[in-house]
UniProtKB/TrEMBL annotation:
<keyword id="KW-0472">Membrane</keyword>
<keyword id="KW-1133">Transmembrane helix</keyword>
<dbReference type="Pfam" id="PF20246">
    <property type="entry name" value="DUF6601"/>
</dbReference>
<feature type="transmembrane region" description="Helical">
    <location>
        <begin position="115"/>
        <end position="136"/>
    </location>
</feature>
<feature type="transmembrane region" description="Helical">
    <location>
        <begin position="156"/>
        <end position="179"/>
    </location>
</feature>
<keyword id="KW-0812">Transmembrane</keyword>
<protein>
    <submittedName>
        <fullName>Uncharacterized protein</fullName>
    </submittedName>
</protein>
<dbReference type="InterPro" id="IPR046536">
    <property type="entry name" value="DUF6601"/>
</dbReference>
């Protein structure tokens, strides 16, 4: 291919594009989707595709990706990270809530996905409080240490209450948002059905 394309930059870009297709189309089901989406022509069957990709990969160093344009050397971006990028960079209410692609809207999945790390934090705090309780009960300590333990305990109580309140508020806001979106979508679907029926009734 280097004899066909004299431009090194263009050759590296073409190799990168073909390499991205090699990552995307790895099974026959992927090839069917590529045909449906118009990514690959229909006359390319899976046997032809695998022969082409195998010959291509023999001339690509997959470890260093030398000869491939740098723009194709970053690999895939996880959906969770892509959703976070969308929420930070696209200042719309829809993108702030949904991100790039909507994931599960079940309450259990939402709490597990976003607040599971709080369990570890509360576990460490519980261990610290238990240790302080043992120390205070077993020995006579100074007034400063007792005041510090008292202040820490009160802070933890407020922290737990505040965290529960924040989780509840976030869940309530999302619940209202998805309920409103469902109603809007339902009205749109019903209007489309009505328009379709009216169109069929016209002579």
């Amino acid at each position: 291919t280097r004899k066909i394309c004299k431009s090194r930059q263009l050759h590296e870009a073409a190799c990168g594009l073909l390499l991205s297709y090699a990552w995307l189309v790895g099974h026959e089901s992927d090839l069917r989707i590529a045909h449906e989406r118009g990514l690959l022509p229909e006359f390319i069957d899976f046997t032809t595709w695998t022969e082409l990709i195998n010959e291509f990969l023999e001339n690509i160093h997959l470890q260093s990706l030398s000869g491939v344009s740098p723009r194709y050397q970053y690999g895939e971006l996880r959906l969770s990270r892509l959703n976070k990028i969308y929420r930070v960079t696209r200042f719309t209410w829809r993108d702030s809530v949904r991100g790039y692609m909507t994931t599960s809207t079940w309450c259990q999945d939402f709490v597990t996905r976003n607040f599971a790390w709080l369990l570890a934090v509360f576990a460490f705090i519980s261990v610290a409080l238990s240790a302080m309780q043992v120390v205070l009960a077993g020995t006579s300590n100074g007034k400063a240490f007792e005041n510090a333990c008292y202040g820490f305990s009160i802070t933890v109580l407020f922290l737990v209450a505040g965290t529960v309140l924040v989780v509840f508020l976030v869940w309530a806001i999302l619940f209202i948002y998805y309920l409103h979106s469902a109603r809007i979508n339902n009205r749109r679907v019903m209007q489309e059905r009505k328009d379709s029926i009216d169109y069929r009734k016209e002579p």
